[in-house]
Write a structure and sequence with these properties.
This protein is mainly α and 234 residues long. It has one domain. The protein has nine helices and three strands; from the N terminus they run E-E-E-H-H-H-H-H-H-H-H-H. Strands 1-2-3 form a three-stranded antiparallel β-sheet. Strand 1 and strand 2 form a beta hairpin.
Amino acid sequence: MTTDITGTFMDARGRAYVQDGSVHAWVWFAALVPPVLLMVAIAYQPWIDPGDLLRDPLAVAELKTECCKVYYGAVSNLGVMTWIGAAVACLFAAAVLAARTGRTSDVSFLIAAGLFTGFLAMDDLFLVHENVLPAFGVSEPVTYAAYGTLGLAYLALAWRPISDSHYILFAVACCLLATSVLVDWQVHSDHRLRIVLEDGAKLVGIFSWAAFHLAAAWGLLTDELAKARHVSFG
């Protein structure tokens, strides 16, 4: 490993990066602290049924005799916006890298990340796996199997960039999202605890997924900038 006067490190593969422990800490903070605090506040506030905030707005409206309140599905909408933000960031970073470098593996990773995250956003927004596919006779086990296959395909394509980034955070995101799916699939109850557990795991999982991909995209962009500086100073 070598370094130049800018403080940039060059690894054995010639990739440049800046080691900064504070960046690593902020990624974990952004992934876990805001959604956990939000879920605690929702679970313990006495004014609004947590389900009204956590469920999809259409699902809440269907259950209510009085429609509609502006806060219906607020947390669900926040999750969709987070999915979309992460997808757009990955695709934008892919476009920048494609214009500046020939590292097709990194560009492919960001494109795959953006498209897969965008797919998850559209599924969440339009309730594809809950309402659309069942209307066409596609059962939940088939749907979850198909989504799991897509996830494994993404992992197979992107395992190297994932392993080079905050891979533990990626694993945490996957476990939380899987927990949410499992609770939704196996536990059929409108109990407050089940709703908070399912949607809480989902929200923290979405934030963790987004934080991981934003950090990975940022790392690849700053890697390219640092490499350019290394060449200019070299």
